[in-house]
Design brief:
By secondary structure, the protein is α/β, with parallel strands linked by helices. It has four domains: about 180 residues, 3-Layer(aba) Sandwich (Rossmann fold); about 80 residues; about 180 residues, P-loop containing nucleotide triphosphate hydrolases (Rossmann fold, 3-Layer(aba) Sandwich), CATH 3.40.50; about 140 residues, PCRA, domain 4, CATH 1.10.486. The chain is built from 26 helices and 18 strands. It has an eight-stranded mixed beta sheet with strand order 12-11-13-10-14-15-9-18, covered by helices on one side. The relative contact order is 0.11. The protein binds a DNA duplex through helix 4, helix 6, helix 9 and helix 18.
Amino acid sequence: MLNTMQLNTKQNEAVNFGVNSDELMQPLLIIAGAGTGKTNTLAHKTAQVILNGASPERILLMTFARRAAGELSSRTNLIIEQQLHKEQKKHQPIKISWMGTFHSIAARLLREHANSIGLESDFTIIDRSDSADLIDVIRHELGFTSTENRFPKKKTCIEIYSRCVNSQTSIDKILATHFPYCSEWSKELTALFVHYAQAKMEQVCLDYDDLLLYCYHMAQIPAIAKKIRAQFDYIFVDEYQDTNVLQAGILNGFFPTGEGLTVVGDDAQSIYSFRSATVDNILNFPTQFSPKANVISLTQNYRSHQGILDVSNALLKEGAEGYKVALFSETKTGSTPKLVTIEDDAMQAEYIVKQVLLAREGGMDLKKQAVLFRSSYHSDRLELELTRRNIPFVKHGGLKFLEATHVKDLLAILRWADNPKHKISAFRVLKLLPSVGPKIAEKVFHHLEINQYDFKAFKEYLPPKPAVVLFEALVDLLISINKNKIDWFEQVSETSKFYQPILALNHDDHFVRFGDIEQLSSISQQFKNREKFLTELTLDPPQCTGDLAGPAHIDDDFLVLSTVHSAKGQEWNNVFVLNVADGNFPNEYAIGDKRAVEEERRLLNVAITRAKDELHLMQPLKYWVPEQQHYGDKHVYGGKSRFLTEKLCSLLESIHYPTYGSSQEQKELATKMISDIKKTVLGIWETA
DNA sequence: CACCCAAACTTTTTT
DNA sequence: AGTTTGGGTG
């Protein structure tokens, strides 16, 4: 990696742009291709601005993920420290408090200005599955479940809703473009969404989309926008290519002239359109401001050798749109990227395990190697193989810790105690009690409702007999948490104490599950209080599910498995990309939509550009996918990826595994009868 | 009304 | 394979 103190010409230009003039800084777009030292440049720019006298609390820094924020913060501090050390000045660590994801910044601004916009400042933030549960209840209430044709599933409903909100597009348009099979339900969905929005208001809840939506509308109110604008001198936005209409609208509302605004991104890495992100934001940025915003492109790559960049450049060159900035590296030589053809995903797993171990023997830690894939389940076979061979690994993306029923149960207790109006959690908690189902839960909740949401009202409430004991314990727990009668640590430990017998009752594998509860308890203590914990946990859920997840293993060496999406911003020496075949790269659901295919191209580009030294594109002749019509799995024969054109293949070394010779040997072994096992088996019963 | 069981149905990526 | 719905039982 580039020395933290040294910058190239372009990076310097970006860092110093507008900083040394007395005038307000003009809007700037930095196109930072993969591995071009983006974080470093942004850290330098931030440091520069602070060293020039800007006060850290007047800097607003929006990043895509929490991880990026941490990295940026520590690097900025390091640079400031080094600079001041040179000048022999003292230095206290700088804290940029206004730093975080759009969602977390939005949440904070909304809490601060809640009074001015008719919002309760102590709203609960609900995650995707909570939203889905709420939607589910409402669609039952509206009678959409017993229709002749099947109504869309709750997950689909929330996806449609989310698309509408985040792209600010009408239901009909969204249905036509993304959910044609649901278009007959337009009217019902509209009704559903109205009720959903009202329900959230009653329960004092905001979902992910609301955070942006409310903030967007707040940004359109002149008095508030003016106040917030006056609060910041510098606004830095990272990963601008992955922002959506609402996010761009928030920036535009608060900072209409673009003064002090610097956005950084790479259109060739825009891969979040499913979250309604649009490349158009970054493509149109220069013309959005008048006079035109300045654009600086960083093209020198410090991560990969030229051989890898050639593949990336060729891939993008064949694409339909974008700034098309070709990257170059000063490292001209390196291992030629490989296109590995294998029979199926069992072979794929075998090849990867072999190569990974080979590299490790050569001194390359597992941590410096990664396997990337399009969909989370693609690594199933490989995970089996790794487990079988005792190779430690960590998986990013895919199934999450927070999605486990028991973890959600525990959180629901804390959420309900925190916000008595939170009906979703209330129902979840109540239904844990024996002989309490939806109807009884409704009654119980209604009792709370008519008593001004005071948990004490439950003291006189009589639940069904089998539930009495647990109910009393629950009520005491809710009261002591809600009134903060016990400290945060005890709130968690008492909750898990309460939950343990329920867990044992409902799940055979409660030992394993209780381990997760203990892990959650330990995570919870990293937060000052309940409010912080609940907010942060939903906005920034733990990312890893390792075989043996947990802080104890953090020093160990492990192989990284990750979805391409979760691999953003990261790099490894060896990278394997699974299932590079048509139907997957590009994904079959994208085929037919030109812009979607372009995004798939960028996705492959992100995967490729993670590699520093060695890149293996795996091309299985067939691979397994979960079958939709019948149960069980089936394999599909993926054709050659349409991205692997002749031009691209000429840049790759073609490998077949297993090699011809050994495959011949294996074939013989498989077909020739060396021994007759049946006879041996029957032999057991033969008496002497 | 809760709970259990069987049948029907299934689109990936995440703040 | 996992979720969701509907039916039957206690």
